[in-house]
Specification:
CATH topology: Alpha-Beta Plaits
Helix content: 25-40%
Structural class: alpha+beta
Number of strands: 5
Radius of gyration: 15 Å
Shape: globular
CATH architecture: 2-Layer Sandwich
Distance between the termini: 47 Å
Length: about 100
């Protein structure tokens, strides 16, 4: 039992370290109206290697995605992803999870 707990703790620490120095992307999207919409977008984003936490705010039309260090989401990539899902991509900003902010 102690070994299982130790392995679980190490894996949680490794996961946290992987995303600790990554990037947060905030995307404005039109057409997100229901939880099913959010689920569809989350599923498409999770298919991208290095994507971690995803938050969808239906009321604000905002999708927030944390990615691991070294992973980048591009405007053309996100525009295509959202258009293919039936939504209108508006804009994206990015912020380093270790502090600094920058617009793309």
């Amino acid at each position: 039992m102690k070994k299982v707990l130790a392995v679980m703790m190490l894996s949680m620490l490794w996961s946290a370290a992987t995303f600790a120095a990554g990037t947060e992307y905030r995307m404005r999207v039109d057409g997100l109206a229901c939880p099913y919409c959010a689920y569809g977008i989350e599923k498409k984003l999770k298919a991208i290697e290095g994507v971690g936490k995803i938050d969808v705010d239906l009321n604000a039309g905002l999708v927030v995605v944390d990615v691991a260090e070294g992973v980048a989401l591009t405007e053309p990539q996100m525009k295509t992803l959202f258009q293919d899902a039936g939504f209108t991509y508006r804009s994206m900003t990015e912020k380093s999870l270790d502090g600094g902010a920058k617009n793309e």
